[in-house]
Amino acid sequence: MNSIHLRAFAKINLGLKILGKRRDGYHEIRTVYQTIELHDRLRVSLHSRRSGVRVACDDASIPTGRENIVHRACAIWKRARRFSGGIEVYLEKRIPAGSGLGGGSSDAAATLIGLERLTGNRLGSAQKWTLAARLGSDVPLFLLGGRVLGCGRGEEVYPLADLPECSCLVAFPGFPVSTAATYQAVGRVLRFRLTRTSEAPSIDSFGARSPFPLERWGPAENDFERVVFARWPELARLKRQFIRAGAETASLTGSGSAVYAIFASARQLKAALRFVPASWQAFRTRTLTRHAYLRAVTSDK
Questions:
Q1: N- to C-terminal Cα distance for the chain?
Q2: What topology is assigned to 1-301 in CATH?
């Protein structure tokens, strides 16, 4: 049996704008992703004497069958590479599911990276990105890491210049938020903006007209906040408290439910911890540059 240990890092969104409803039913978005040190751990193993895919997880609430994105990543890779052996993945979850931190997508991307490292059987660049996008809108960003521009439904990604690593506080209230349901709610609220568009996603359409500052951390404006904060005002209150505590930026990540804040120092982050309710999960972490991210994915230290 041949195995590799991997780390699958979380992401936050440094702003997210919903531009319109696409002909394929998805929404056209612009976002800036940022990877952070909070991570899951995976062990990917190959078996020459068996076939099929098996996924196990230390969190009993995570499904491990064909509906699991890691299971699908293994299956799609096996078909693409015509691999006849067996694949087994053991997953240690730390990134909360349904939090907007991209844990499942990161697990899938790390699995693809691990399978390539184990076999030396590398997909062509275009095929790899296509497989990642088929798995999920957030998966391609985790093939890059660092600070990444997301266009289209989020799957068309472009590397951005990294900012210096900073302290990051992530607060998870203990409940998930459905991305699909939140998109529907945003569509009802912002229907004047969600018109069908045939515009192809392009970095040129973002560029100089970026709704986010690309040369600094904030402010990070997230269109999902309008509906998520209306339903869960405690999330909006925490964001305001983080900003008053000196955060360079604070926001909902993705469609939620996690709220993050970026601080210039670990001292400021520690002081802001008092605002996180005792029943919530608080993660003290840091942003990851692209170089640090790519080096750490296959490091088990």
A1: 22
A2: Ribosomal Protein S5; domain 2 (3.30.230)
